[in-house]
Amino acid sequence: MIDQEFLIRDFIYLDWERLRSIAAQVFEGLPEDKAYEKSEENLVTSEIGANFWPLKSKIGGDIRYFNSERETRSLHHYVYSLTEKKLLESGCLKNFSSDFNFDLWTEDYFYDGQFVKIQGLIRIIDFNWMYMWMDNFQQSMKTIQMYELKGISDKQSQTTKRKAQEKSLEEIKNLKLDEMKKLMKQLYGDTNRIKVVPNITHPMNIFVGSGDPKYFNETGKSLSEKYGYDIEANWTVFGQINFSKKGREKQAVVFPTGNKMEDAIENIIIGLNEVQKVASHIAFPAIAFTPISIYRTNLNKSNVNSIQDSH
After folding, report:
1. Is the confidence at residue 107, as pLDDT, over 70?
2. % of the chain surpassing 70 pLDDT
3. Between β-strands 115-119 and 93-96, what pairing exists: parallel, antiparallel or unpaired?
4. 0.70 exceeded by pTM
5. Is residue 135, in this structure, part of any structural domain at all?
6. How far is 213 from 9, CA to CA, in rounded Å?
7. Which end of the chain is less crowded, N or C, counting CB atoms within 10 A of the terminal residue's CB?
8. If you average pLDDT over residues 153-168, what whole number do you get?
9. 166 in a domain, yes or no?
10. Cα–Cα dist 40/93, whole Å
């Protein structure tokens, strides 16, 4: 079995801002820091672990804070490794994989803010790529049709083909892709939708969240070209549960202020939010969560399971 020390993570997604906050609270500052003064400039050096390069900071002589100017991606990855390990050791991280006992998948099993580590099938929907595709679809079809006609030498066949192409273009126009794109953008914005199914034989037991495109190391389009939309590569997803029992089914209540204008605007906002919920509502047994990281490792499944069992 490969030792835990040689578990190397290749991050596909990492929300550093959330991880920074979690790590700072878990470790009360920068993980495993050792501080001492150096020279009259009061530069403080920190060694993360026994063999991590020194970092310098001028934050009031105290390096127990992250300095964004000095941060590197490799530091982010190392801090993540320490944080995940600490959460596992403290029993604050719940594992979900194909061998999870799905009889436990009840509303009482989950709570808001719960940390989860999930392995299974991952689907990533890149809305930005979809918007771009919708913008260019009609023109792309015209280009394809032009080359199709150039490959036909017979005039009568060309005429027949052209009529069929015109019919196809009219059908595409009737789809009203521009209007569909505006609606999708209003409902889903520029996020990437992330769905994780621990066991494909239990497709209703799913985690659903949204990721900020800027935290991905690759675009959704690039990932889909390599793996397809459904990624079954034993990747790991770390995140936090967003859960309110029966909360989404409750009718929103207006809290009047006595200001008729403000109360009327609040009513409108609540009404619009109800429309939004129709498009984005996640109902149990699906579980809403906030993805913090997605990564793959150098270990095969049996080795990963052996490491998890050791905890």
Report:
1. yes
2. 69
3. parallel
4. no
5. yes
6. 20
7. N
8. 81
9. yes
10. 43
Residue 184's Cβ-count burial label (10 Å; 0-12, 13-18, 19+) is middle
For residue 224, pLDDT beyond 90: no
- What is the rounded distance in angstroms from the CA atom of residue 132 to the CA atom of residue 18? 29
Say what the pLDDT of residue 99 is.
94
Confidence of residue 60 (pLDDT cuts 50, 70, 90): very low
Cα distance between residue 26 and residue 281, in whole Å: 32
142 domain residue, yes or no? yes
Q: 118 falls in which pLDDT band (50, 70, 90)? A: very high
| Digit-coded pLDDT (tens) for 3-25 | 555 788 999 999 999 999 999 89
Tokens of residue 39, six digits? 């020279």
Structural domain contains residue 180: yes
Q: Domain limits at 151?
A: 129-185
